[in-house]
Design a protein that fits this description.
The protein has two domains: 215 residues, Spore Coat Polysaccharide Biosynthesis Protein SpsA, Chain A (Alpha-Beta Complex); 101 residues, no CATH class. It contains 13 helices and ten strands. Helix 6 runs parallel beside helix 7 and helix 9 runs antiparallel to helix 10. It is of the alpha/beta class and 339 residues long. The chain is globular, with a radius of gyration of 21 Å. Strands 1, 2, 3, 4, 5, 6, 7, 8, 9 and 10 form a ten-stranded mixed beta sheet that branches.
Length: 339
Amino acid sequence: MKLSIIVPVYNMVADGKLAFCLDSLVNQHLEDYEIIAVDDASTDNSLEVLQEYAVKYPGRFVIVPLSENHRQGGAKNAGLDVAKGEFIGFVDSDDFIDPDMYARMLAKAEETGADMVGCDYCITYEHSFAPGKNCPNNKPSQTGILDEEKYKSLILDPGSLVIKIYKRELFENPELRFPEHMFYEDNAVSVPLMLRVKHFEYIPESLYYYYQHSASTVHVVTEQRCRNRMDAMEYMFKEMQKTPELLEKYRFEVEFRFINLFYQNTLFSYVQQKQGIRIGFLKELAKGMKNTFPDFQQNPYYLERVNPEERKFMAIQQKSSLLFLLYYKLVWWVRRMRN
C-alpha cells in the first residue's frame, strides 16, 4: 500500500466538520491508500459517523476506537501501530485537503526519492475550497538532500507536521512516538523527526485547508494548555539528549526552538488570556527556562529573531515576574489609551 492517512478524531461532528474532512479524504485522486480514523473516545457520535463512512466506502477505512481519551498524540500513535502504507500522512479532523494533495506529494516523492514531502496551507473560515489566506509552510532552500545548513533551517522552521508525508520507516524506531495526554504533541517530536529525514521536497502551493473555529487548539489559551506546550518542549529536549552528538552539533538551533515555544510563545499568550494570571506560574516558567538554558539571552537566533521589545520584557521577567507583569500591563494600557 502506498499511503496511510491517520486522522485523530474527537468530538468533531458539530457543524459538519468531520463529514467535510472525510469527504475530502475519500475524494483523493489516488487509488492505493487507506484512511485510519482513530476515535479518541469521543462523547458525541463521531464514532458512528466513522462507521457509516466505513460501510459506504468498503476497504478504504480502518476504524480504531479508543476506550479512553489519549489526545492527538495517543491517537496518532494508535494509527501508526496499524498503518500499512509506505508513506504516512496526518490530517486533523476539523481540516480538509485538496483532491490532488496526496497524489502530488507521492509523485514528488517517487520522482525525487524524498522521504518527506510538504506543501503550503491556507486559512479558511468556511467549508469551501475557495482560496483562503495562503501560508507558506516551508522554503525551497530547505529542500533536496539534507546537509548541516538545511538541518539547521528545518530545526528552526520545520513547518507543520500535518502538511507533509513521511516514509513510514521514519517512525519505525519505537523511541519516536508522540507524547500522549497533552496538546502540542507535534512540537515535541518535530526536531527529532527532522533530524531523521534524509531528503525533503516541497510543493509551494496551498493544498491543505486549515479550518478556523473557536474550539481549535490554537484558539483556546488556558494555563493547562500553556503547561502542555512547556511539557512538549521538555519532551523534545529529553529526546535530543539521547543523541548528544546531534544536540551538540545543533545546540543553538535546538536552544532557540526551546526558547521560542517553551518560553516566548507561552509567556506572551498566557498574559493575554482572560482566565486569570498567576504570578506563581510566571515564576515557574522563568525558572524552567533559566534552568534548561541559563545563557539563552545570548543565543544568536534569539538576538536576531526576537524583537527588542519582547527581549526587554523577557529580561525583566527573568528578574521579577511581578515587575514584568506590572510593566507589561502598563505598556498595553498606555497604547490602548493612545488609540
